[in-house]
Structure formats: C-alpha cells, structure tokens
Backbone:
C-alpha cells in the first residue's frame, strides 16, 4: 500500500505533522487532471485548456465553462465536482444581477466558492472537492485571473497553470510573466499556447480539437461577432485554429490526419 | 353614495377603476388582495401585526435631473395626522458617497430602510476590493426590498426617490420606488402631492427647456416648487433641504426656506382676519 | 381599510404574427390614476433571438415576472446549451403564472416570436396562465379599442373577400402592412385613451427569409425625432442564429 497513510480516513483529523491528508489527496486529484493555463494582460484575461478524450470513440471532455456574460472557468480534476461548484457559481452570478443589477465582482465569487470548499475540509462527514479552477472575469476593476483550489485557497495571479504537468507551463510563465501586461490579445494567446504546449508529453501536440481558448476582454482581429464590451467566450475547433496554426507546429498536420495518435489518455477524469 | 372622497375617481364611472374589458371586477375574479399568503400558525400569530397605515409621515419629495447630475428636495416636517409633530426631521439620506434617497410616507419604516442600507454599504466597504454600489445598484436593491415586502403583504409604507451619479461611468440615475414595488425613472419625479402640484411645473421648467440646465437654475426651480408645495400642501413646512449629486460627490444642504406672500389672504372671506 | 398590494399602471401592448416575422409592440407611458409617472418605461423585452415578451397591468408584477422568466431562460441555456424554444417559453410562463394562482401576478402577457418551423407566432395569456396561440392579440388599457380593430384587419372579420373562392388567410400580411397597422393602432389608442401615449416601441422578430425592405424604408424615410435608427439595435441583437430582432421607436402624442 504505497499511498496509504495513517490519519487519512477522516478529513477532520490532523496528522502528527499537522497535515490533513484528505485535503492533500484532493489537491492530487487536481494534479491528475489535464492541464489548464491562465494569463492576464491589462485588457484581457484568457484561459487555455488541454482536453482529453477517453478513447477513439469518445469526444473530448469539456474543460472550460461559461458562468456569466463576464465570467468563466477552466477546470482540472473531478468533472462532477466541478459541475456542483459551477452550478453554484452560476446561481450566485444570476443572484447578483437580480438583487443589485450588477455583474458579480470576480474576486467575490471566487471567495464564495473558496469559503464553500474550506467548509468541506473541516466538517465531519464531508470530503473536499476534488477539483481546481482557474477563473477569469472582467468587472469594474478590469480583467482578472484567479486560482481556486480544494484546500479553500483562492488567489489572484497574472499567470497560472493547474493540472497534469503544469509545472512545465508554470516555468514558461514565470519566465515571461513580466511581458504579459502590455500584450495584445493575440500575443497573450500565443504565450498561453506556448505555455500549454510546454506541459505536453512528448509526441503530443496542440490541435484545434484538443485545445480550447476562453477569453474575456475586447474582441481580437481573428474574432467576429463578439460584443465590443468584451464578454466571456470560448474558442474551439475552427475558431481556435488560427491561433494554433500561428504556433507553427509542423507535427500538427500529422496529428490531424491520425487522430488516434494524439490521444492523451492517462486517466479518466 | 357612489361619489368617492378620492378625487382621482371623480368624473369616471365608479366601477371603472377596477373593471376590465368584460365589465367584471378583476380584483374579485382573481381574488386579488385577499389574504392568500399563508403565515405559519403559532401561539403568537394572532398578535403579529403588519403595517396597515402610516403613523408619523413625511409629505412629498421632488427630484430633477440637471446638466451635471441630480437635485432632490424634501421638507423637514414629520406629521402625526394633521399635527405638525416633528419640525426638524431630515428626509434626505445619503447612501454611500454617490447616492441620496428622499423618503415620503412612514418615518419609522424609513428609518428601518436607512438601517438596512447602512448594513449594505458597510458590508460593501468591508470587502475592501475596489468595488462599490452606485445609484443604479442601490436602486435595484431597494426595488427588490420594497417589492418583496409588498408581496408578504407587509409593506414598508414609503415612496422613495433615488438620485445619484455613478462616479465611474458618470451616468445619472433618478428613479422612484414605493410601497407596492412600483418603479420608474424619469427626468423629473415627485411623490404624493408633488406628483400633482410640482410635476407640471417641473415638466415645464426642466423637460421643456431647450438649453442645458445648470446647478444654479436647477436650485431656483427646486425652490419654486417647494414654495408652491408649501402654499398648497397642508402637511408641508417652509423649511426644507436640498441634495445635490454630481460626479464629484454628493451634498445635503442646511435647511432653508423661501419668501412667501400671504397678503392676498386678507381680502378672502374665510381665509384672512375677518370675522364676518 | 386594508393594504391592497395591487395597482394599475395603464399602457397597452400588442403583437401580430406574420409568415416569417412577428411584431411585438407596447407604448412606453407608465401611469397611476391620472398621473403620468414616466414617459419612458418599457413594457416589451427581448428574451432571445426567437422570443420577445410584453407584459402589462401592474408594472411591479410585470417586471418581476419578466425577471423570473429571464432567470429561467438563463438556467435553461446553462443546462441545455441552447435557447429555449418559443412554445416551451409559453408553456413555462403558463406554469409560472398559475403557480401564483392564489396571489396572482396582475399581468397580461403576450409572447411573440418565431416558432420551431420558422413561422411567426403569438401567444396570449391571462393573469393566471390560461393561454393560446394566436395570430394577433392586444392587451392592457386599450385592449377593448384595439382587439376589434385587429379582428377586422388581421382576421378579416366583417369583410367581404374580393375573391370569395380565395379568401385572405390571417397571419400572411407582409411586414410593411403589419407595421402600419401597429402604428395606426397605437396612434388611435393614444387619441382615445388617456393611459396610452408618449412613445411606441415595436420589436420586430424576423427569421432569415424575412424581407427587411419595410424596416430599411422606415429607417431611411423617418426623421431622427420621429424614429430612432434601428441599426444600433440590430448589431446588439444580432444573435448567433439567423433570427434577428429589430427595435423601432416611434414617438406618440404626449398629451
């Protein structure tokens, strides 16, 4: 029993080292999920996700979700836990519009799910959520990127990555983060894709099928039909293609003709 | 006797106000206004009361939009029936730094709303995250509150005028919400008596005006209206305050009054000093 | 004397369906008794690219109802990743109205839009949720003035067809005719009803086959004070699907 620890059968009990093992396993569930990257400039916040498919006959699993017109998330970890939390977020976002007539401030909705997640680490009979989020949104104070994790932490970042092999992506972002503020949308997406690509296993590539790009902020030159105030939208398939093509991957053509080879199946989410 | 003491029903068939196109009384057909809300029964439920009429009341509030923002006015009187009970009551109240509300109707309900709004603003302040509630958001909140209370058949017996300018967008809000949850916005607003006496003046002086209205002229218009209201509204006082909200911020003035002329009364039988 | 939770806020609404469009209209006056509260409070709201709702009666109830409908539509969109179809919205509104059968929304509701086969459709409701699909419907303060006029103009009641073997079919009038009928309805109601006036909002829900010539003609011919341009709204309302909604604003008499 390699992973067996003492003090891990009840999340309300500390280990002698002062750790909550159940919470750490929850963080591990996030690390097992496929990678997601988030970046923020002065004008935009974006998310890039690597989608997995469970097999040749399966489609790719959705990784980015809209919460409200100004707000969206990328997930890594248990999809069903993400659904519970995102339903909660959608309700909170709609309530804010109903009661105050304003889009919910990004930091507040993130705090609210963090509060919810923290309770699950402390109450008897509950388990922590097995999912982490990157949250992007735009409000009165500009574009924002937050990370939410199952231990109940929620922090704001200029760039962040979560999920499998996300350390590689993080290394890229750490190198480039001081350039991000002044980036145009296309440059920001380019950095994001570079970073996401860094997290790939060898022989894997980014394709319009396995990559989705979520954006808040004014429309870019490759986007049409986006409202000028800059609402949340997800680019996938053909809409994401120009950006992925711009990455100039020669193996891309090969990957598209042989879809079975680009599978990225390591575990089920 | 079918003649109503409510003058708004004079000159129309007495059932007209409640009749639909089929000649039926809609309030009857759908049992509108009957006691449908089920309140959980307990030992105290018989003793629980809901406001059925206002007690200590303020009279009208007026408001107008001008070039740089919003101006509101309300007098300092709180009446107890026909008794001029409290003559130094403030009926204009600042909510946050860019919104002011004016209240007509029950003054204790108004105080309750003040506390409610204070809590709201304090909570917002404590977030300390750079977000704030502008006039439009405060108005939405008040509308929800008032409609919610009317739906419990436990209304807050007020009519509010909400005025403000959003400091970020510069957009000005002038809006109304009352005990039924009825809402609207308009370039000029008056509650109660002012909706009959001051609104025609305000519409002519503000809405029909060709050139932009500056702050000084707006104040003159407000004073004119408050004077006419004092002349014609028996529950009013020639002591009032004026609130001004612009992009820069908001301000509630000291109490002021206007010069009035009562000489005409001398010649009127039953008005002046004559005994015969 | 006990508290009455209702009042009437005047105004009138109207919707007419065509073959490939639907017009939903309402005046913008809000009143109570003899007082005009506002000259511009909307009674018509676009719900999605295929549906527009108008609600009239007690304004606070109407606004609350529309808020709830919008909430439900948003939830539906999150859950099913598509817009709720018109007939489903109509059925949903029935249950929402009947759900408050014993403390009703004092709202007369009309929903207009494009149905599943692309035809214009109107659904008319009573305040407790009884509803039916129709070709046209008027409701509100001037319902008793407008509905007979529509019966005559839209349903061709009390008209002798020029060609008895080939009588006109309700719901097939072209857009320019319908817009003219809507405008005339409201100018007429404004003349004869004190609670109607100030301005007229007409939402034109169209499918992709609809000839928009009538709209363009109105936009070009009208002066800016008579009519606001529709182009701005078109851009804003341009949904992902082929259905487009246009908003026309026309001034009415203010006395």
Residues:
């Amino acid at each position: 029993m390699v992973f067996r620890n003492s003090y891990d059968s009840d999340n309300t009990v500390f280990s002698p080292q002062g750790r909550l093992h159940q919470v750490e396993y929850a963080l591990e569930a996030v690390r097992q999920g496929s990678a997601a990257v988030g970046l923020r400039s002065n004008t935009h916040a974006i998310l890039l996700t690597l989608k997995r498919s469970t097999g040749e006959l399966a489609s790719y699993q959705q990784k980015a979700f809209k919460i409200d017109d100004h707000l969206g998330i990328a997930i890594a970890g248990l999809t069903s836990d993400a659904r519970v939390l995102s339903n909660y977020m959608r309700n909170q976002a709609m309530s804010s519009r109903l009661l105050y007539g304003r889009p919910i401030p990004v930091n507040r909705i993130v705090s609210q799910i963090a509060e919810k997640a923290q309770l699950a680490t402390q109450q008897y009979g509950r388990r922590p959520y097995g999912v982490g989020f990157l949250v992007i949104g735009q409000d009165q104070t500009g574009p924002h990127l937050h990370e939410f994790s199952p231990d109940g932490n929620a922090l704001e970042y200029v760039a962040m990555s979560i999920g499998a092999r996300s350390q590689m992506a993080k290394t890229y972002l750490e190198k480039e983060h001081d350039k991000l503020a002044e980036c145009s949308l296309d440059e920001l997406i380019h950095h994001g894709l570079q970073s996401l690509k860094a997290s790939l296993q060898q022989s894997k590539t980014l394709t319009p099928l396995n990559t989705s790009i979520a954006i808040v902020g004014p429309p870019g030159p490759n986007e049409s039909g986006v409202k000028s105030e800059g609402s949340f939208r997800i680019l996938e398939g053909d809409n994401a293609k120009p950006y992925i093509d711009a990455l100039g991957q020669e193996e891309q053509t090969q990957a598209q003709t042989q879809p079975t080879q680009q599978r990225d199946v390591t575990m089920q989410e | 006797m079918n003649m109503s003491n409510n003058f708004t029903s004079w000159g129309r068939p007495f059932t007209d106000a409640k009749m639909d196109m089929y000649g039926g009384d809609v309030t009857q057909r759908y049992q509108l206004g009957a006691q449908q809300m089920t309140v959980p029964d307990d030992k105290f439920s018989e003793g629980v009361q809901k406001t059925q009429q206002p007690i200590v009341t303020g009279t009208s509030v007026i408001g107008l939009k001008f070039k740089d923002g919003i101006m509101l006015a309300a007098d300092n009187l709180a009446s107890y029936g026909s008794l001029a009970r409290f003559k130094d009551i403030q009926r204009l109240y600042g909510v946050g730094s860019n919104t002011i509300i004016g209240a007509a109707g029950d003054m204790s309900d108004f105080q309750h709303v003040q506390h409610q709004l204070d809590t709201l603003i304090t909570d917002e302040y404590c977030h300390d995250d750079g977000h704030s509630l502008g006039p439009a958001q405060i108005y939405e909140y008040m509308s929800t509150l008032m409609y919610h209370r009317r739906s419990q058949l436990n209304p807050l017996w007020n009519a509010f005028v909400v005025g403000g300018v959003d400091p970020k967008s510069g957009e000005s809000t002038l809006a109304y919400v009352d005990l039924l949850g009825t809402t609207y916005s308009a370039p000029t607003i008056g509650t109660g008596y002012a909706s009959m006496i001051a609104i025609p003046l305000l519409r002519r002086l503000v809405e029909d005006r060709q050139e932009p209205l500056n702050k000084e002229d707006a104040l003159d218009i407000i004073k004119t209206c408050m004077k006419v209201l004092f002349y014609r509204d028996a529950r009013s006082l020639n002591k009032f305050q004026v609130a001004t909200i612009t992009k820069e911020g908001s301000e509630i003035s000291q109490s002021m009054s206007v010069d009035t002329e009562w000489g005409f009364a001398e010649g009127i039988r039953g008005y002046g000093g004559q005994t015969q | 004397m006990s508290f009455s939770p209702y009042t009437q806020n005047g105004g009138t609404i109207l919707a007419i369906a065509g073959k490939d469009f639907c017009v939903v209209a309402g005046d913008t006056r809000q009143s109570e008794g003899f007082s005009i509260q506002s000259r511009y409070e909307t009674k018509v709201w676009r719900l999605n690219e295929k549906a527009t709702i108008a609600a009239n009666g007690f304004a606070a109830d109407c606004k609350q109802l529309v808020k709830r409908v919008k909430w439900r539509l948003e939830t539906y969109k999150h859950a099913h990743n598509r817009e709720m179809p018109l007939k489903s919205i109509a059925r949903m509104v029935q249950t929402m109205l009947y759900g408050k059968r014993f403390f009703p929304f004092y709202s007369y509701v009309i929903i207009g839009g494009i149905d599943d086969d692309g035809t214009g459709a109107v659904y008319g409701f009573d305040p407790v949720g009884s509803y039916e699909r129709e070709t046209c419907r008027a409701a509100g303060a001037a319902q008793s003035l407008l509905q007979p006029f529509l019966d005559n103009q839209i349903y061709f009641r009390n008209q002798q067809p020029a060609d008895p073997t080939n009588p006109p079919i309700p719901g097939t009038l072209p857009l320019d005719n319908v817009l003219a009928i809507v405008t005339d309805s409201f100018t007429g109601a404004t003349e004869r009803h004190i609670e109607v006036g100030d301005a007229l909002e007409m939402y034109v829900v169209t499918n992709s086959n609809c000839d928009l010539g009538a709209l363009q003609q109105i936009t070009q011919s009208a002066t800016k004070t008579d009519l606001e341009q529709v182009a701005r709204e078109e851009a804003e309302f341009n949904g992902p699907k082929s259905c487009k909604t246009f908003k026309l604003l026309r001034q009415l008499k203010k006395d």
